[in-house]
Amino acid sequence: MRAVDLIETKRDGGALAPEEIRWLVGSYVAGRVPDYQMAAFLMAVYFRGMSEEETVALTQAMAESGERIDLSGVPGVKVDKHSTGGVGDTVTLVLVPLMAAAGLVVAKLSGRSLGHTGGTIDKLEAIPGLRTELTLEEIRRQAERVGAVVADHTADVVPADRLLYELRDVTGTVPSLPLIAGSVLSKKLAGGADAIVLDVKCGDGAFMREEAQARELAETLVRVGNRLGKRFSALITAMDEPLGTAAGNALEVKGAIAVLHGEGPADLREVTLALGAELLLLAGEVGSAEAGRARLADLIAWGRAWAKFRELVAAQGGDVRAIEEPDRLPTAQQVVEVPSPASGYVERLRAHPIGVACGLLGAGREVKGQAVDPGAGVELVAKVGDEAARGEPLARLHVGRPDRVPEATKLVRDAYTIGSQRARPKPLILGQVR
Ligand code: URA
Fold first, then answer.
1. Residue 188 is among the residues annotated as catalytic for this protein
2. pLDDT band at 336 (very low <50, low <70, confident <90, very high)
3. 330, 128 Cβ separation under 8 angstroms
4. What value, to the nearest 5°, has the Cα angle with vertex 276 and ends 273 and 277?
5. Residue pair 126/331 in contact by the 8 Å Cβ criterion
6. CA of 124: how far to CAs of 3, 93, 115, 242, in Å?
7. Cβ distance 357 to 205 under 8 Å?
8. Beta-bridge partners for 202
9. Which helix (H) or strand (E) holds 429?
10. 249/374 Cα distance (integer angstroms)
11. Cα 180 to ligand 1 centroid, rounded to whole Å
């Protein structure tokens, strides 16, 4: 087989056979197909899409590119969660310890920043010393001992996603339904969970901006996932404005810590509880989502979720003092305010430009392998419905790359619409697919 023939077939709208997809993914992981051919293939998929059969084959080929996490010897129900990516979406940092506090086991493989969205691994690495590149044995042992692990997709597990993810990030090929499905589901297939909840983000800051697209992605993920032999369900959640009150790695760790202490942004807590309740339901632990929410709220109030987060951080070599006293987390070299151009109310706050600004300021990558600045990001002083006063800050830029401040300032200022009416809160949970 030749990569160029497969690229041309896809470029011209043809369908590939499962063995062709397996060959391409395997050859890329083995270093026999170079980045430039894979980038061309990804762009062809971006424009031409894939059939469900091709998506299943892609997912399987990616999952089979490495080893699987075997949690069969670990007692308890194994669950997992995955988000399709958003801005300020730090749900995993709260949900993983919360599920472990509820007695379930979560060994989660996560990613780094992708396009304009943040990545859990970059966020966790903002905690000094914390290791995310764990061996299979380390993942298994920590799952058994702590009940909660968050690891990077390693050289051993789903190496195909690690490589493709990095390439998509810098080639404009992220918002593609089959590529997102392959990426998300291959990690879930190689992970050891029995029940998985997917958070399909929808809106300005999501890869799927329209509700119909998000629903199609959610339905595809659940259908393909169930075909591959695991129990999946998905919530479609709002990502029109960022979640929480900040986007950026250390800034989001602080937001997650606040929610684990029973404080923090209400929207972040709400989405976390909704996904957690869905997982408890899928795992057969509760009879209704309401009962699940109540149980999770108690675990936060009793400090159990926080205790698990502490355990997770310590187990992965992180400096526990930095989460106990979050002022010890990395900070940016400079903070610049973005003042409001008018007085009134925030009518709209678009998540996409906030995510792009965050990346420009140092929280994301412009080329493969670039280091991120853990302290960089955007703090949102005002969100939709809040009052704004002319000249007062709408947001603060936490600057890692000072030459990008003018561009980031413009993006953040233009992300806000100030009007005269106080906007009504919009629903956070837009739909569900089981
Ligand atoms: N999350 C992933 O893991 N992969 C994607 O492609 C998008 C979101």
1. no
2. very high
3. yes
4. 85
5. no
6. 37, 8, 18, 19
7. no
8. 238
9. strand 429-433
10. 5
11. 5
Token representation of residue 112 = 């780094």
The residue whose CA has the least distance to atom 5 of ligand 1 is 180
Under a CB-based contact definition with an 8 Å cutoff, are residues 418 and 388 in contact? yes
Beta strand 148-152 with 195-202: parallel, antiparallel or unpaired? Answer: unpaired
Extract the tokens encoding 82: 């995955």
Token duo for residue 318: 């992180």
Residues recorded for the chain: 434
Joined together, the tokens standing for residue 59 give 């997912």
- For the question of residue 82 being annotated catalytic, the response is yes
Ligand 1 pocket check for 132: Cβ under 6 Å: no
Give the three-state DSSP class for 292. Answer: helix
- For residue 322, give both structure tokens: 């930095």
Q: Active-site residue 113, yes or no?
A: no
User: What is the mean predicted confidence (pLDDT) over 118-136?
Assistant: 96
Q: Please give the domain boundaries of the chain with CATH numbers for all domains.
A: 3-49 (1.20.970.10), 78-324 (3.40.1030.10), 330-419 (3.90.1170.30)
The answer, yes or no, to whether residue 155 has pLDDT greater than 90, is no
Among 433, 54, 23, smallest CA distance to 233 is for 433
pLDDT, tens only, 268-314:
999 999 999 999 999 999 999 999 999 999 999 999 999 999 999 99
- Joined together, the tokens standing for residue 269 give 């807590």
Residue-wise pLDDT for 293-305, tens only, equals 999 999 999 999 9
Q: Is the CB of 180 under 6 A from ligand 1?
A: yes
pLDDT band (50, 70, 90) for residue 265: very high
Distance CA 35, CA 94 (A): 35
| Nearest in space to 71 (alpha carbons), one of 100, 96, 106, 110 | 106
Helices (H), 240-288: 249-260, 266-282
